[in-house]
Amino acid sequence: MKQFLFLLFCFATLTYCDNKEDEPLLTCECECTDLTWLQKVKNTLTNCDRYTNKYIYQAVYEEQTVFYVLITNNDPAALTMFKITLWDCEGNIVKIFEAEEKEKFYEMVTDNILLFSCKDS
Questions:
Q1: Facing residues of 64 across strands?
Q2: Organism's domain of life (predicted)?
């Protein structure tokens, strides 16, 4: 039930965001050449509020450059939820870390670089 509510929350959040297509991602320092797919993901992560912040990170997982979206929520009920999808340079899913793998995620995903931040200003 918690996973369903989390997915519903994520879907609703992404659905109601404004698209700011003019704002590019911060410069990506990696071997990736075409990040059009990541720009599309970024365009859905706008219109943050005081409860929800959204970030796009570049990182290293198993010696490979990956990208992921981190959505944080100040709601105590949502703090226990965790699910992160890692994408490669082409936008293919490399790994999905479920809630029970949270510690493993923080151990295995390194060299995190913030590319985009949508926070309440």
A1: 61
A2: Bacteria
Tokens (6 digits) for 87: 């994408």
Q: Give me the sheet containing 52-61, strands edge to edge.
A: 93-97, 84-87, 64-73, 52-61, 109-118
SS (H, E, C) 12-44: HHHHCCCCCCCCCCCCCCCCCCCCHHHHHHHHC
Burial 27-45 (b: 16+ CB within 10 A, else e): ebeeeeeebeebeebbebb
Tens of pLDDT, residue by residue over 88-104, are 999 999 999 998 999 99
Entry pTM: 0.70
Domain spans of the chain?
2-118
User: What pLDDT score was predicted for residue 99?
Assistant: 86
